[in-house]
Amino acid sequence: MNFISTLIIALILRILYLVYRKRKPSFYTVSLVIISVIVWSVKSYLLDYYIIPTSSMTPTLKAGDLIFAKPVDAQKEQLMRGDIVIFRAPAFPSFIYVKRIIGLAGDTVTYTDDKSVQINGRMIGQLNLHNDHTSTYQALQERNAQQYEYIIDNRKPFVKPIYTQWVIPDGYVFVLGDNRDHSWDSRFFENAVGTPRHLRGLVKKELLISRYLATAFTLEFMKSDFDIGENSLKVISEAQTAEGNDGDK
Q1: Which Pfam families match (predicted)?
Q2: DSSP 8-class letter at 69
């Protein structure tokens, strides 16, 4: 139960209590109930909103961005490659993520040790800018034919994913962050206990909540200093580096 739903229930109970005690609810209490119901209805059926806490979707979405999203019924709405979606984490449904859909049902996604991603044998995007720190690529969103950028951090070592290739079945999508070396996504996701091995890392459509529409503005004070995904990547990277060093001895 989210905050708005809890607030509505609390206010309604307050009104019922006042009626029971034969006291008239205040104008402010009634107004707050009405406003809360309107906000809840809009958020549930028309327009959703979120604040981005991390940099995993940079440069498209920055930490502190307030974004608007459209609630989706993934079973009815046609999803497209390049769509940015908000969803519940496969293994921890209480965690909410925002990533970009890269692979749809029927696609074969390949991730290579040079950090490139291929869909059905074709690399995503073209190199736009390159320096010692980062490489910036441009790719196409299918929904509106607009370009988006994703970046690779050339200072970060390659982190081995759970697999190097995924075949996407019906009812699932493959997602990545635009800030590839700072994103915890389908390359590394854990799934619920009992999930078949070939589904590891993939996101069930039923876990999708909404689809990104636009960014309103940036709230600098809402930026998070702790990114669980990036910290997990650091742990994996350090472990793989240590394993490699032990193997060289």
Answers
A1: Peptidase_S26 (PF10502)
A2: E
Query: Percentages helix, strand, coil for the chain, rounded to the nearest 5?
Result: 30, 30, 40
Torsion of CA 159, 203, 92, 212, to 10 degrees: 100
Give me the active site residues, please: 56, 99
Query: Sign of torsion, CA 77 168 63 192?
Result: positive
Note whether 91 and 192 are within 8 A (CB). yes
Kind plus residue range of the DSSP H or E element containing 32: helix 27-41
- Closest listed residue to residue 89, CA positions, set 212, 226, 5, 195: 195
Beta bridge partners of 15: none
| From the candidate CATH numbers 3.40.50.1820, 2.10.109.10, 2.40.33.20, 3.20.20.70, the one assigned to the domain spanning 48-224 | 2.10.109.10
- Radius of gyration in angstroms for the set of CA atoms belonging to the chain, rounded to a whole number: 21
- Give all strands of the β-sheet with 134-140 in edge-to-edge order: 126-130, 134-140, 147-153
- pLDDT > 90 in the chain, percent: 51
Phi, psi of 31 (to 5 degrees): -60, -40
For residue range 25-79, what is the model confidence (pLDDT) as tens digits?
Answer: 667 666 666 666 666 665 666 688 898 988 999 999 998 899 999 999 877 778 9
DSSP-derived secondary structure for 147-184: EEEEEEETTSPP---S-SEEEPPTTEEEEE-SBGGG--
Domain ranges of the chain: 3-46, 48-224
Q: Is the pLDDT of residue 1 over 50?
A: no
